[in-house]
Amino acid sequence: MKALPKKSWPYDKLIAAAQKALANSYSPYSKFAVGCALLGEDRAVYSGTNVENGSYGLTICAERAAVFTAVSAGCRKFVAAAVVSNSEKFPYPCGACLQVLSEFAAKLPIVLVNREELTKETSLEKLLPSPFRPGS
Ligand code: THU
After folding, report:
1. Is residue 135 a part of any domain in this protein?
2. Which residues span the domain enclosing 105?
3. Which of 40, 76, 84, 108 is the most buried (most CB within 10 A)?
4. Burial level of 69, CB count in 10 A (0-12/13-18/19+)?
5. 0.90 surpassed by pTM
6. Total structural domains in the chain?
7. Probe target for ligand 1 pocket from 19, 25, 61, with the most ligand atoms within 8 Å of CB
8. Is 63 touching ligand 1 by the criterion CB < 6 Å?
9. Number of helical H runs and strand E runs in the chain
10. Ligand 1 pocket check for 83: Cβ under 6 Å
């Protein structure tokens, strides 16, 4: 665990964007707020937050919200990601989000940030070494 790398680009920018998205989290059921920011190959930052629903299964995670925002804007390649939470735990992306991320990045450094602003660096290839590919 490391202190927040405030000056280490691109994480400073990504963490700030993910924290801004987290502030808009709609998570009245779990109270677990998540924000995600993706750095596109186009060098733009795309963010998303988790949006829950009274029909719980319809909830969308922050990471997939960020992916869908990026793809909707025309960006299909990601080069770095930050995921932040309001919990003492690090917000490891769920399997569904890892699979969706893998569609748009083979290698993706990911920084996880908890509510104390401690950081953990990991990567998509570490968390999902064998993603599903049609025909594989
Ligand atoms: N959540 C995310 O936003 N990302 C993940 O990768 C895992 C879980 C959200 C969904 C739900 O709103 C809350 O965290 C608790 O599961």
Report:
1. no
2. 11-127
3. 84
4. middle
5. yes
6. 1
7. 61
8. yes
9. 4, 6
10. no
